[in-house]
Amino acid sequence: MRRYENYKTTQYDWLLKVPGHWKSRSIRSLTELSSVRKGNSSAELLSVYREYGVIPKASRDDNHNVESADLSNYKVVRPGDLVMNKMKMWQGSLGISRYAGIVSPAYIVCHIMDKKVNRSYLHMLLRSTPFKTYYNRMSYGVRVGQWDMRYTDFKNLLLYLPPLEEQDQIVRYLDWKVSEINRLIRICSEQLALLQEARKKVIADTLKSANDTRQIPLKRLLMKNLTGSWGSDNAEDKKQCICLRVADMDFMSGQFVNTKPEQLTHRYYTQKEIDELTLQKGDILVEKSGGGDKTPVGRTVIFDKPYKALFANFLQCLRIDERVIGPKYALLNLHLLHFTGDIRRIIKQTTGIQNLDMNALLSIKLDVPNLNNQKKILSQIDNQLKKIDELTDKKHEKVDLLDELKSRLISDVVTGQIDVRDVKVPDFEYIEEEFDEDLDEDPADSDFENEED
After folding, report:
1. Global pTM?
2. Which terminus of the chain faces fewer neighbouring Cβ atoms within 10 Å, N or C?
3. Residue 258 neighbours by CB under 8 Å, 6+ apart
């Protein structure tokens, strides 16, 4: 694609050159720090996600942070404000808000003061890939998962901005091109949903066809039933351990999304907690508590990783008695309860939080054949799922490639590596980015309500 005729160097090694006519401006000169508090007014609670930017917290089911009972100290956000989760800035958890609302006191809120800045352009620029290098370098902390970026460092960041008219053209161009990519991603997402339904049907039909079964309550199929712990941020002679969360899990496959220990959340635990809650191969984790109505709690995954880990307090661990039932067979039966809606009937909801009635779950009777028949049934299911899983993997790969293309295109255009000034943008249907529940990665999940700036 076309490049600009003249370039100049910047002071950054992560952004080597920008168009010669672009002007440098510091964040300090463009913004004004805001600490206006909610007080007694009514306002919608917002959250900042790595993938989405600023969105209403209620619009997602995967944010399990429980807001403070007293929201009067929460910060006010106006449409057009820049909002940052300073403890997740290294992941790119910031954005210009389209909404009026309130956010955790731990967030940073800035008003954009310069009227010659297109807010959409600034949103894409600050969230572009090169800028994450700066956020990483300016974030500090003992553990990666708890790094903190100070506003005093952020405000010194220099932006290289084109004239307002050029910013407007860049936004029009990217809205057009991103909409085209989002349309393709939406098609893939619809196809993935059909494949997921086919997967559910194979599991349900095969399990229901099992012969010579005994009905056994789930609680009689367990060696142990363990409640998780969130641990502590404070060492105080405690040991640091991996803490698995809901966000680390892919409930459709029953596996973990994040597999590298260094990329997972770490917390501090007592030796007693470590002795009691360290997961064993074959343990089943149940999502017992969460927010939202789109997807009921009660989803399950199996632990089969080579590293030691504990689990957060939104999860329950079922340690299976393998003398009676295989862990994978038990897992698929629990998936079946979710598919058929039986889980919905044992969920209690209070103040927007779903809580699975664990006593009711443990009382549910499963149809259990002998161990040999279980192996045969699992083999049948694996054979039938092979083609579906291959197609699913290909669709996921295509979505990943489209996401990568979109990210690269945005970064190249907003940083001036591609010149789109003379590109004629046709009339087009604007298609927003969609985030499917099962395709979602890791949310910027730390509100840290009790922490002040």
Report:
1. 0.80
2. N
3. 248, 264, 442
CB proximity list for 38: less than 8 A, separation 6 or greater: 71, 72, 73, 74, 75, 76, 102
**Range of 255's domain?**
214-368
Q: Could you report the average pLDDT of every consecutive run of 10 residues in the chain (453 residues)?
A: 94 96 96 86 86 80 55 91 90 92 92 94 96 89 69 93 98 98 96 95 94 95 95 85 88 77 87 95 92 76 92 94 96 92 88 86 96 96 95 95 96 97 95 59 38 38
Name the domain count of the chain. 1
Strands 139-140 and 108-112: unpaired
Q: How many CA atoms lie within 13 A of 132 on its CB side?
A: 14
Place of tokens 């572009």: 128
Q: Which amino acid makes up residue 231?
A: G
Give 451's contacts (C-beta < 8 A, 6+ positions apart): 105, 106
Q: Reduced to 3 DSSP states, what percent helix, strand and coil does the chain have, rounded to the nearest 5? A: 35, 25, 40
Residue 436 C-beta-side C-alpha neighbours within 13 Å: 19
What residue ranges in 23-119 does DSSP mark as E strands? 23-26, 31-34, 46-49, 53-56, 75-77, 82-84, 94-96, 101-103, 108-112
Q: Note whether residue 6 is domain-resident.
A: no
Q: DSSP labels for 365-415? A: EEEE--HHHHHHHHHHHHHHHHHHHHHHHHHHHHHHHHHHHHHHHHHHHHT
Whether 247 maps to a domain, the answer reads yes
> 421 in a domain, yes or no?
no
Q: Are strands 266-269 and 239-244 parallel, antiparallel or unpaired?
A: antiparallel
